[in-house]
């Protein structure tokens, strides 16, 4: 490792504070900005995230039942975000105290584990919503089998367990160490175990972020192409525009929260692994630390998805804010969250409860097309 350049020395204080992840003791990271950026940003995420997700959980539990498949995914997404924001006060204290962790090694492991558990559960729940909407719009008949609420509940349970299982090694890598008068809570691991951690982290990133991100992009690309194609006998409507807005919102969450964090983290890990110059490491480290609050901000942006895509959710939230009278729970149907009359007797009413008006029209016309094909065959 080469020594840091004179220009860099001039930007550091006479007694620089070591970062929790520096490569060698002779490479000091200039992280004074972190002790302001991270406590402030985490405090904002905690306040906004708890203020937005706690009412969301209450609405899903008491005002939007029974749930369809998409409402099930959204509830678990809100639950994941709530669990994460509850862990942020300890990180606010840690970074405000200039990398001093007085809460013990066990809690350090759990808090670091919770960050990545929420991150990747959020990615997978958004992917589940994407696939569910893709089936509802592009394959409405097939979606009747795979879009049932019971299947969604089992899939959500699998997401929690799979992500937790993949992150179990993180509990062994993350630890605390004493550095001067401070007790560090490592975000990755000790410098001597860093090579092994990079291989583990790369595998987890590819499995729990790279592949789901690709699936989401493919699903929304196919959905957008289908939505832009005019349906027989159906005019352009607000439901179609709402579906397109849904695509934009979810892709924005990926682009703002998940993609920058994973790209900068990958570059940072590679720079350390390849023994880059200390000046380069400092630059990469600054960019990586700046994107970490963006990854946490998904806890605040996910409720925006409910507001943009859920008519029923917006109405119930507005009534909650106005402290209106309690109303009977109604069905939370898909991203549109449209409540259907219980006496609907058409053959495709069940599908419309689970996929919204645009999917209902697609299902209706596909059924009519199959009926015409059967009639022609009989003749």
TrEMBL record:
One of its GO terms (molecular function) is G protein-coupled UTP receptor activity. One of its GO terms (biological process) is transepithelial chloride transport. It comes from the Eukaryota. Its main location: membrane. CDD domains: 7tmA_P2Y4 (cd15374). The chain crosses the membrane at residues 40-61, 73-95, 115-135, 155-178, 198-223, 244-263. Residues 52-306 form the G-protein coupled receptors family 1 profile domain. It is found in: Cell membrane. The keyword Transferase does not apply. Keywords: Cell membrane, Disulfide bond, G-protein coupled receptor, Membrane, Receptor, Transducer, Transmembrane, Transmembrane helix. This is P2Y purinoceptor 4.
């Amino acid at each position: 490792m080469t020594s840091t350049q004179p220009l860099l020395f001039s930007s550091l204080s006479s007694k620089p504070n070591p970062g929790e992840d520096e490569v060698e003791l002779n490479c000091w990271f200039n992280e004074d900005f972190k002790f302001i950026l991270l406590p402030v940003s985490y405090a904002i995420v905690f306040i906004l995230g708890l203020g937005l997700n706690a009412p969301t959980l209450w609405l899903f539990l008491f005002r939007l039942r029974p749930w369809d498949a998409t409402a099930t995914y959204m509830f678990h997404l809100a639950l994941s975000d709530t669990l994460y924001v509850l862990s942020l006060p300890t990180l606010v204290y840690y970074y405000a105290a200039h990398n001093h962790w007085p809460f013990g090694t066990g809690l350090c492991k759990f808090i670091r584990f919770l960050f990545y558990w929420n991150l990747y559960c959020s990615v997978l729940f958004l992917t589940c919503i994407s696939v569910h909407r893709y089936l509802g719009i592009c394959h409405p008949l097939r979606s009747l089998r795979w879009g049932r609420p019971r299947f969604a509940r089992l899939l959500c349970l699998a997401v929690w367990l799979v992500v937790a299982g993949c992150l179990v090694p993180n509990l062994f890598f993350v630890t605390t160490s004493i550095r001067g008068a401070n007790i560090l809570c490592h975000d990755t691991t000790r410098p001597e175990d860093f090579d092994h951690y990079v291989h583990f982290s790369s595998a987890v990133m590819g499995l729990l972020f790279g592949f789901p991100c690709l699936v989401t992009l493919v699903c929304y690309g196919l959905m957008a192409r289908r939505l832009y194609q005019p349906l027989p006998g159906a005019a352009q409507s607000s439901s179609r525009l709402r579906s397109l807005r849904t695509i934009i919102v979810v892709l924005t969450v990926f682009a703002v929260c998940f993609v920058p964090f994973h790209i900068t983290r990958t570059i940072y890990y590679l720079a350390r692994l390849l023994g880059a110059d200390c000046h380069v490491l400092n630059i990469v480290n600054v960019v990586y630390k700046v994107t970490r609050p963006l990854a946490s901000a998904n806890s605040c942006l996910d409720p925006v998805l409910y507001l943009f895509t859920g008519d029923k959710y917006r109405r119930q939230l507005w009534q909650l804010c106005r402290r209106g009278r309690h109303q009977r729970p109604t069905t939370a149907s898909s991203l549109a969250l449209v409540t259907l009359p219980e006496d609907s007797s058409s053959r495709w009413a069940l599908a419309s409860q689970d996929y919204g008006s645009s999917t209902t029209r697609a299902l209706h016309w596909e059924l009519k097309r199959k009926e015409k094909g059967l009639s022609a065959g009989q003749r």
